[in-house]
Amino acid sequence: MKKFILHSDLNNFYASVESLYNPEIRNKAVVVVGDEEKRHGIVLAKNYVAKSFGIATGDTVWEAKQKCGCELVCVPARFDLYLKISKMVKDIYREYSSRVESFGIDEAWIDISDIASNYEEALKIANNIRCRIISEIGLTVSIGLSFNKIFAKLGSDLEKPNGMVVITEDNYKDKVWGLPASDLLYVGRATTKKLIRGNIKTIGDIATADIKYLKLTLGKMGEVLWKFANGLDDSEVTKVGDKEKIKSFGNSTTCPIDLTDVAQVKSIIYMLSESVAERMKEKGVFATTISLWVKDTELKSFDRQMHVSPTNISEDIAKSCYKLFLENFNWKLDVRALGVRASGICEDEIQYNIFQKEHPKKECLERTIENLRSRFGYNIIRRGNILAYDSLSPLNPHSEIHIIHPRGFFKSK
Known about the structure:
Layout: E1 5-10, H1 13-21, E2 29-33, E3 43-46, H2 48-52, H3 61-67, E4 72-76, H4 79-94, E5 100-102, E6 107-111, H5 119-137, E7 141-146, H6 149-158, E8 164-167, H7 172-176, H8 189-197, H9 203-208, H10 211-218, H11 220-229, E9 246-259, H12 262-283, E10 287-296, E11 301-311, H13 314-328, E12 335-343, H14 359-376, H15 384-387, E13 403-406
Parallel strand pairs: 2-4, 7-8
Antiparallel strand pairs: 1-6, 1-7, 2-3, 5-6, 9-12, 9-13, 10-11, 10-12
Helix pairs in contact: 4-5, 10-11, 12-13
């Protein structure tokens, strides 16, 4: 059956919601920022006025103010509100299809193949959705309509705000192939640099490149991108209610002070690892890859990973991350932020080897601690290594925004 897939992207979502609830700032330069007192004071979102001054997501507040040629309105993020509005919007999508797949809080794919038999009908449905979101929610949305998820996503990026782009089997070469390679989903900075070294600059260049060269340069992802560029993506939009396989669990934090020694770093790593391990045990899964992310005081960051025996024990995760830190950080600068991630998720019941004979006891202990925290609050029991630092001990990983990554868009190895 011929597919008609929409990708809907709420325009400048955080900033638009804030302007919706405070019309006085609607025509001003608005940025939504993290908590400056906790040193999370970076731009999380901006409206088009702020964007016109060159303000970008990830700028610090002081950088944004320097760029702005007028008064800059800084609004603290209200994630509970954004989640509430996001649900209202996606409830509208679900009135049209049982296949609605979220791609972040403000984006979603909608498969309307069951109610549209041609592009004219599909376009009417898309415009109806767009008008309803404006009238019922008060926000604008850009929608891409295509025969696969990749081109639908690309279409929603081409006309903002409140745009509508149709990419068909007949016109995709004209509309897509001339665009920069970086416009294609999953072509990030590192991949773009590798492609440019091979004189591959556009999506059309990817589509017409030697697939063997792409696989040699980019590994499995080279073949995936070649298929994307040629319109060969055949992935399904997830059905509402389907359980998505979680690809990884992670948590990160910007520290309230710069970390100047390994003991401070170790205490934060253990705190974050407890948070990650707790959520893994809730899902009954184990990780085979542990990753550490580090940002220094010049806001430069890196991440490293290592493979481990299947585990969901916080001590295993923390020890792996601490080892990665010691092996890779040179202390030319202090540490500003840290992140811990567990991936390579497996759900099968594991058999512990002789070197893991203490794991059942450790798991029992950790579950007891997690139960206490769920009943009486996180601070009912704390690790001694973080209580030694007055400025770090108030940190609560449960109050951080947990990053739970769903299954990858393409099939994993």
